[in-house]
């Protein structure tokens, strides 16, 4: 018998790091040194800042680039899917590499709108709900907040250093591999977490897999 | 009372608040500001303090008392922190600030609290009474990004003794701050009379009472009569729009009796718009919450064309009512409006006119942006998010490694 699934949630408070940048060169230098949870804030948590809105980009760094006229770079950075990474240091390097590859000295003028690096001070809480069976699991997800979904679909991967999210990992253990795979392939950053929640419930309740 | 928020934020969100508050049970929290009535800070505390108590975090709210001389100094300090304006703080003022602070120290008991929130500069000096083990947080509601150096030095005398400070947005924090800076935007309360649902009949009755035609599109700006809110610019934009659109402009506001500038702006505005039958300049009494609510709900497009702005929560109030807002690209307005998605950010009278025309011409845009505007407020600018941020902050500060 597999371990029960413990439903958790994640809350955070934004803290300003005191680092603001006005040019691409400064952006690269800041990305090298900022707290890794600042990367987490701008690349992952950003989903909440514009939640439910049909926004142009998936992260706030791309937005800043776009607002300052670096349209190509904005696109290059927004295509980076944070769910392809569980190591924030690796993601940091990818961001720096992408900017450097598309950066020329003549692009270094100072912009009027600085980018402010925020970091997330996080707190994980247990909801008190536990699932032993697939039905209990479905009920647990129905009662979960979007913050809880975020924890199990996003943060748990970083904490456990795996590309498989918590839900899918548990489902694999339960022997429902197809449902697990489908959930692991969901594109979280192209929709909002309410829609993702609905889709997860549909996958779990479906008799097809 | 908490359960009354479930229709707005969902049961799961309230459950999470309860879970985080359990970690803070029996904690004693104090908020100190300088008024029980009027202004955004008092309005937020009116909602927040009872909710914290309902979560079994014993929370009190006390008011720092001062006289006219004290408040005229802190008003000057406020302005200087906002932007240098050639005025100076003299030694008499500094000493008087300390004198009033010492008088308040006798009245305001801060000793029996684990966490003390001090709002804005007026009560900031109370920090001298801080005890070991207590955590003091300065909540700043002002944009201090480019302060007058002397005013900042004055503030810094107290600020560095605090454990953390909070600003609405990082842009408002001065770069010399060395204590932890948290960013927590302010919020609106969906249960406040300004924001509750109103019947169609009540909206109609309130608006038509002022002679406004509900059949004709309404462009609305709600703000006190202040040049920085640029009501004259809104009128100029209206004149550009009026060439092609049969619409009405409603400028709703109020001015305090003791604000001569407000009265003169109001009179000048009345004078300027006197020949225009479709322009309504309405000076409403303070606390006309339901009236403001009705105007926002009845408006076709809402404008906030401020030249300078703190956070400008009136934008969120209109967005909460599903209205697209055309707002200036300044202060907190640019944090609330997502350009092209929940409204438009503009930089000029002409820009405002173009965007208002686009919205007047396209019901689809209005509905679509209005929908997203409400969603944005629901997720970012409601009191429950504000409360949750405070609870996490308290928890984090109490568990901070020194």
UniProtKB/TrEMBL annotation, chain A:
Pfam families cross-referenced by the UniProt entry: DUF5752
Highest taxon listed in the record's lineage: Bacteria
Descriptive protein name: Uncharacterized protein
Species per Swiss-Prot/TrEMBL record: Thermodesulfobacterium geofontis
From TrEMBL, chain B:
Stated name of the protein: Glycosyl transferase family 1
Alphabetical list of Pfam families matching this protein: Glycos_transf_1, TreT_GT1
Gene3D superfamilies tied to this protein: Glycogen Phosphorylase B
Organism of provenance: Thermodesulfobacterium geofontis
Protein family per UniProt: Belongs to the glycosyltransferase group 1 family. Glycosyltransferase 4 subfamily.
GO molecular function: glycosyltransferase activity
Record-annotated membrane-spanning stretches: none
Highest rank taxon of the organism: Bacteria
Residue stretches making up the Glycosyl transferase family domain: 204-375
InterPro entries the UniProt entry points to: Glyco_trans_1, Trehalose_Metab_GTase, TreT_GT1
Subunit structure: Homodimer.
GO biological process, one term: glucose metabolic process
Domain Trehalose synthase N-terminal: 31-173
UniProt keyword terms in alphabetical order: Carbohydrate metabolism, Glucose metabolism, Glycosyltransferase, Transferase
């Amino acid at each position: 018998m597999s371990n029960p699934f413990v439903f958790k949630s994640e809350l955070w408070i934004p803290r300003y790091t005191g680092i603001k940048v006005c040019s691409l060169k400064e952006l690269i230098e800041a990305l090298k040194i900022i707290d890794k949870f600042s990367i987490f804030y701008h690349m992952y948590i950003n989903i909440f800042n514009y939640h439910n809105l049909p926004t142009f980009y998936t992260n706030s760094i791309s937005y800043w680039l776009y607002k300052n006229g670096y349209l190509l770079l904005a696109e290059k950075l927004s295509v980076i899917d944070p769910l392809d990474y569980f190591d924030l240091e690796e993601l940091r390097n990818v961001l720096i590499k992408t900017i450097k590859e598309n950066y020329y000295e003549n692009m270094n003028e100072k912009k009027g709108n600085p980018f402010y690096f925020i970091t997330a001070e996080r707190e994980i809480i247990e909801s008190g709900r536990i699932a032993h069976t697939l039905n209990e699991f479905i009920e647990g997800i129905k009662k979960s907040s979007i913050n809880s979904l975020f924890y199990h679909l996003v943060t748990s991967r970083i904490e456990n250093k795996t590309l498989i999210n918590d839900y899918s990992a548990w489902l694999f253990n339960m022997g429902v591999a197809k449902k697990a795979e489908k959930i692991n392939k969901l594109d979280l950053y192209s929709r909002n977490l309410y829609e993702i929640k609905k889709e997860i419930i549909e996958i779990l309740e479906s008799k097809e897999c | 009372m908490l359960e009354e928020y479930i229709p707005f934020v969902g049961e799961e969100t309230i459950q999470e608040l309860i879970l985080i508050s359990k970690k803070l049970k029996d904690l004693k929290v104090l908020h100190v500001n300088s008024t029980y009535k009027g202004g955004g800070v008092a309005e937020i505390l009116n909602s927040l303090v009872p909710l914290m108590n309902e979560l079994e975090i014993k929370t009190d709210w006390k008011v720092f008392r001062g006289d006219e001389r004290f408040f005229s100094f802190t008003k000057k300090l406020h302005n200087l922190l906002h932007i240098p304006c050639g005025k100076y703080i003299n030694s008499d003022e500094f000493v008087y600030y300390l004198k009033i602070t010492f008088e308040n120290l006798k009245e305001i008991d801060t000793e029996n609290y684990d966490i003390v929130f001090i709002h804005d500069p007026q009560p900031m000096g109370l920090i001298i009474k801080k005890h070991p083990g207590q955590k003091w947080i300065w909540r700043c509601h002002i944009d201090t990004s480019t302060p007058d150096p002397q005013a900042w030095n004055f503030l810094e005398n107290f600020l560095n003794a605090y454990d953390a400070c909070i600003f609405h947005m990082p842009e408002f924090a001065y770069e010399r701050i060395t204590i932890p800076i948290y960013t927590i935007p302010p919020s609106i309360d969906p249960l406040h009379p300004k924001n509750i649902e109103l019947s169609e009949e009540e909206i109609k009755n309130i608006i038509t009472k002022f002679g406004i035609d509900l059949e004709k599109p309404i462009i609305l700006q709600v703000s006190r009569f202040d040049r920085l809110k640029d009501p004259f610019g809104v009128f100029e934009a209206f004149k550009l729009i009026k060439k092609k659109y049969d619409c009405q402009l409603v400028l709703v506001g109020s001015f305090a009796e003791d604000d001569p500038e407000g009265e003169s702006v109001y009179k000048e505005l009345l004078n300027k718009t006197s020949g225009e039958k479709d322009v309504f300049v309405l000076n409403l009494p303070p606390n006309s919450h339901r009236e403001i609510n009705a105007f926002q709900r009845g408006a076709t497009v809402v404008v906030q064309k401020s030249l300078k702005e703190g956070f400008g929560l009136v934008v969120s109030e209109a967005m909460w009512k599903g209205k697209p807002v055309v707002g200036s690209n300044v202060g907190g307005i640019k944090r609330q409006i997502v350009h092209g998605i929940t409204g438009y950010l503009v930089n000029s009278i002409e820009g405002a006119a173009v965007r208002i025309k686009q919205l007047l011409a396209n019901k689809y845009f209005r509905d679509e942006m209005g929908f997203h505007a409400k969603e944005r407020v629901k997720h970012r600018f409601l009191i429950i998010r504000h409360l949750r941020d405070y609870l996490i902050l308290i928890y984090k500060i109490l568990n901070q490694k020194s």
